[in-house]
Protein: Murein transglycosylase
Organism: Actibacterium pelagium
Amino acid sequence: MRYLANVILFVMSFGLTPSVAQESALDEALPQVNYPGSEAKRVKPPTPGAKKRIMVQITERYPAFPPPPVDYVQPTSVNPDDFRQVEPNAPKPVEGTRYGWYWRFISPEIAASRPGRMQEAIAALYAAPEGQEISGPRLQTIQNYVNAYGSDILRATVGTRVSPALVMAVISVESAGVPTAVSHKGAQGLMQLMPATARRFGVKDARNPAENIRGGVAYLDFLMELFDRDPILVLAAYNAGEGAVQRSGGVPRYAETRDYVPKVLAAWDVARGLCLTRPELATDGCVFRR
């Protein structure tokens, strides 16, 4: 075969083209490979007067299985190394907090408030000291919540400033997806509404998932407007009350609240991985993968 190919190349070097016989010989010398589905099929022409025509339909092939959702949390475009250097005037951690280090990188003060600092807040999670990392929920756990409550969340967030992914994160931390959960302080349901908050936003049965979600979203939407969409202050107020945030001039120095905010942010970073379009802000829309 190599000899025949060399002969043809020699002939072509003089400006000549190989003859039909040469091409036929070369075809016979080369190995024949048949690919599945490429076999030639003979189709007979229709008989004279026949009305049916030959129709050729090409069926589009799809993968046997759709690609699974990504099962990991992707860091944001903000470099976590930017948060390694602690400001000289950073406040000391509140006694009793597990994640007090977080507030050395993210200011709890209202004066530092601004709508777009979600990326910084997420990037700071990756600056945790060794052994003090904030673990978010498993992706499959959030997927289970989506399967159970995703439709209710999407309905409740339409026309609001609240991302469905943020609601999912709050549910994860507040109740672990248990609609009948009751705290020792009396908070009830998926989003752990206090009785006064439930009445305030028209929730009659806090243990009803759809009602509870509607009330929780309404409260978050109210806080988004009150605190100019700053995710840090909104989450702090959801946990401690807007009055406590206003009186403290920022995130109150409550150990529970100081740990609550970064835990919800870690859950948000997981939950948004289930959105068809990954949200960047706590106000961005989200359609969940099913």
